[in-house]
Design the sequence.
């Protein structure tokens, strides 16, 4: 083994030691940021119990009227407590304009079915003009929420005697 090869091993070893030392310094620092919320005032202790405001038993729930009022407000753009025909139809006009690709004011079948035809073309991987079962499976609607997991029921632990 030549002197040049030995220097390479020594330089590599020194680099490994330097990386290990840098890792220790990096990970031994404060990894947690400070508190995100300001500290809460301490509750007064009297007679061994903590004196504080009692919390309600249940959180307040939104009522149907509140939900309905929000829906009403989304349509009532000028806030006059009335929904005009134009205010009611504005969402439909926007949806229609998005579908009317050529802007001629007429909705052809192809313009109306663009989402379905695009989905079909994407699923038909082999471009045969027909979908096989695996290709069709890719057209299933994707759920936005978290996947449901069916967990087995908890089995009671038998006590040993």
Sequence:
């Amino acid at each position: 083994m030549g002197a040049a090869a030995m220097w390479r091993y020594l330089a590599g070893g020194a680099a490994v030691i330097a990386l290990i030392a840098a890792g220790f310094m990096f990970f031994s620092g404060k990894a947690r940021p400070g508190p995100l919320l300001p500290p809460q005032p301490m509750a007064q202790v009297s007679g061994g119990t903590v004196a504080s405001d009692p919390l309600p038993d249940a959180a307040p729930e939104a009522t149907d009227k509140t939900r309905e009022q929000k829906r009403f407000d989304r349509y009532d753009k000028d806030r006059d407590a009335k929904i005009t025909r134009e205010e009611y139809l504005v969402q439909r006009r926007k949806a229609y304009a998005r579908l009317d690709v050529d802007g001629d004011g007429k909705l052809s079948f192809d313009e109306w079915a663009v989402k379905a035809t695009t989905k079909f073309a994407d699923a038909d991987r082999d471009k045969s003009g027909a979908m096989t079962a695996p290709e069709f499976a890719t057209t299933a609607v994707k759920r936005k929420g978290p996947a449901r997991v069916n967990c087995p029921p908890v089995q009671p632990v038998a006590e040993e005697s």
Notes: Residues 64-99 form one domain. The first strand starts at residue 44 and ends at 46.
